[in-house]
Design brief:
11 strands; alpha+beta; 17% strand; 7-stranded antiparallel sheet; Butyryl-CoA Dehydrogenase, subunit A, domain 3
Length: 286
């Protein structure tokens, strides 16, 4: 194997491992429960305090985080720091997503009246943390369409990244005949994976700025007087997805470097092809 061809394949091998890294990051982000994180503050009004709260810890802030499928929270005033689990339940037939909180004492789902806190006044809900005004409809129900779109495009990003990894490995082993499995295919799969990842981030940003920055809490915690309005920020999973996006862009640049290496010509080197002429004599072309 020639020196330049070896360098070309080593560059492709590097691109292959970078793609595997991006796939791992995207898969980890999908299963993470830290897409959004927020401190929970106690409002002045507290119609029904949490079971673990006490007057001695009334000013103790809580925290909450959740991802695409699950989350957790510790209520404000909870001096025992008892962690509650949360499921983000989405129903395709009703097109509704809902935060379901579970009692850590017995693991049962907290029961909440369906019409409880159908809307909240942001001027009151954000009185200690933000200057937001207006009405937030269904604070315990993030957008179903934004949620399902985020899941779909993140899944597509992982799928096309797998295609990119396979195509890159094929080019490391041998030179494929098909364009879709060749270097052009590696470019295409990486580009589509990066676009799917970027779309995931954009959709998530839409969900964050339309709903999550005001509330990421189940309705039961709102009833306890908790608020996350103005206290939410992007969790680790969002930055992990951004890192995967940068890896896809880096991959395209790395493969571009390989193109420069593979295009080097070797002067003075002839290629001989022996053919068979009609008159029965062998002819050599170079």
């Amino acid at each position: 194997m020639e020196k330049q061809e070896r360098k070309s394949r080593l560059i492709l091998l590097l691109a292959f491992f970078l793609t595997l890294t991006a796939i791992g990051l995207l898969a980890g982000a999908m299963s993470s429960d830290e897409w959004v994180y927020a401190e929970i503050q106690q409002l002045n009004r507290s119609p029904s305090p949490s079971p673990e709260s006490s007057r001695a810890g009334a000013d103790e802030p809580g925290y909450a985080s959740h991802g695409l499928f699950k989350g957790k929270f510790v209520p404000p005033g909870n001096i025992l720091r008892v962690q509650h689990s949360v499921d983000l339940t989405c129903n395709a037939s009703t097109r509704i997503c809902r935060y379901d909180a579970f009692d850590p004492r017995d693991g049962h789902l907290y029961y909440v009246e369906s019409n409880s806190y159908a809307s909240i006044n942001l001027a009151e809900f954000c009185e200690k943390t933000s200057q937001a005004t207006g009405i937030l409809e269904h604070p315990g129900e993030p957008s179903f369409w934004l949620w399902i779109s985020t899941v779909i495009f993140l899944s597509l990003a992982i799928l096309f990244a797998l295609f990119a990894a396979i195509a890159t490995l094929v080019n490391v082993i041998y030179v494929p005949i098909s364009d879709i499995a060749g270097i052009q295919g590696v470019y295409v799969w990486n580009a589509i994976a990066s676009l799917s990842t970027l779309t995931t981030l954009c959709i998530w940003a839409g969900m964050y700025y339309s709903h999550l920055r005001y509330n990421i809490l189940p309705v039961i915690v709102i009833g306890w007087g908790g608020t996350t309005c103005g206290l939410a920020y992007h969790g680790n999973a969002v930055w992990i997805i951004l890192a995967a996006l940068l890896i896809f862009i880096l991959n395209i640049a790395v493969i571009r470097c390989r193109r420069g290496v593979s295009s080097v010509r070797h002067p003075g080197r002839a290629i001989y092809v022996k053919g068979h002429a009609k008159d029965g004599h062998d002819t050599t072309y170079y």
